[in-house]
Amino acid sequence: MEYCIRKKIEENEKKLLSPRACLASQSRGRDVAEEECQIRTCFQRDRDRIIHSQSFRRLKHKTQVFLAPTGDHYRTRLTHTLEVSQIARTIARALELNEDLTEAIALGHDLGHTPFGHAGERALNSLSSFEFKHFEQSVRVVERIEKDGEGLNLTQEVKNGILCHTRGEEAYTLEGQIVRIADRIAYINHDIDDAIRAEVLTEEAIPLDLRLSLGMTKAERINNMVVNVVENSSDKIRMDEEFYKLFMELHGFMFHAVYTNPICKSEEVKAVAMIEKLFEYYMQNPFELPDDYYRISETDGIERAVCDYIAGMSDTYCVKIFNQLFVPKSWID
Q1: What interhelical angle do 291-300 and 302-312 show, nearest 10?
Q2: Residue 221 resides in a domain
């Protein structure tokens, strides 16, 4: 192709984006050097690699908050990821930052999440001799597990944004920082929506002062939060101090009203028990791991491979494997 579209996109980034944006042409690169695509920038390629990955597809059957919901409209880890991406892209566009990089980080940020949400994460963390954190596992997925162990060979900027999307050190790009705050904006609002649908919560149960300040509806809250981030961000992505305080009060309310609510968490004990049994089984029978994960056990140890295998399971696959291993089958037709 005589005309390189990628170079035109990179030149447009230099002209149109903020001086604080992370430009594709100035990426820190990949662990393994590759020939550049003639059409897509490096960040656009990363986005596509994530979307086409097996880990991304499995998110559709991974819990967000409610385990095994019976309705079609409850969020899963995949729909959560798409909502984070939408909010993050809106903020990035408004701030004239790199929307492609922001989208890639957002789409990849939860690839390492366990089955059964944070209950699964806590279970693996308690079972393993090392700290198991889903954000670290997400990086491990794209570096070590995807494509039969080859990894996706993503850019350093995307991997850093994925690693730093939850807590601890902030991403070194503003685009990565956007995903961190977009993640929180997305889940606090869609978890309210799901809790109302599940009749665990009513809109009126949210303290009136928070609704008056942050928004009376989900749409108003998301809009007000996004606008506040855009209006208060420059060399750092942030909300203003008073608004952020109210945002954290809403999070505290949700922690007590929903995240630790016995109705929402009634099935978690069963989920944790399944993960514990599977962990014990594969630690004792590593030869029964799928070939990809058995190869990992030979280089990284059995415990690491077992955690990788279980963390990669969807809720439905975890239940299926548990039933195959531990639930008696009828032998009479």
Answers
A1: 140
A2: yes
pLDDT of residue 180: 98
What tens digit of pLDDT does each residue of 105-117 get?
Answer: 999 999 999 999 9
- Give the CATH number for residue 235: 1.10.3210.10
Position 62, amino acid: K
CA-CA distance, 240 to 228, in Å (whole number)? 7
Tell whether pTM > 0.70. yes
In a domain, 159, yes or no: yes
Asked if residues 282 and 306 have their Cβ atoms less than 8 Å apart, the reply is: yes
Nearest-angstrom CA–CA distance, 312 and 71: 24
Instruction: Examine residue 58 and state whether it is found in any structural domain, yes or no.
Output: yes
Spell out the residues 6+ positions from residue 277 whose beta carbon is closer than 8 angstroms to its own.
Answer: 322, 325, 326
Q: Please tell me the predicted confidence (pLDDT) of residue 170.
A: 96
Gap between the Cα atoms of 93 and 69, Å rounded: 34
- Running DSSP on this structure, what letter comes out for residue 286? G
Q: Pick the more confident residue, 138 or 168.
A: 138
Across residues 86-104, what is the average pLDDT? Answer: 98
User: What is the residue-wise DSSP string for 175-225?
Assistant: HHHHHHHHHHHHHHHHHHHHHHHTTS--GGGS-HHHHHHH-SSHHHHHHHH
Which of 106-145 are b and which e, b meaning 16 or more Cβ less than 10 Å from the residue's Cβ? bbbbbbbbbbbbbbbbbbbbebeeeebbbbbbbbbbbebb
pLDDT for 189 beyond 90: yes
Q: Is residue 140 part of a domain?
A: yes
What pLDDT score was predicted for residue 68?
61
Q: Where are the beta strands (DSSP E) in 46-100?
A: none
Question: What does the pLDDT look like over 143-172, one tens digit per residue?
Answer: 999 999 999 999 999 999 999 999 889 999
Number of domains present in the structure of the chain? 1
State the residue range of the domain holding 37: 5-20+28-265
| CA–CA–CA angle 319, 264, 78 (5° rounding) | 60
User: pLDDT category, 65, cuts 50, 70, 90?
Assistant: confident
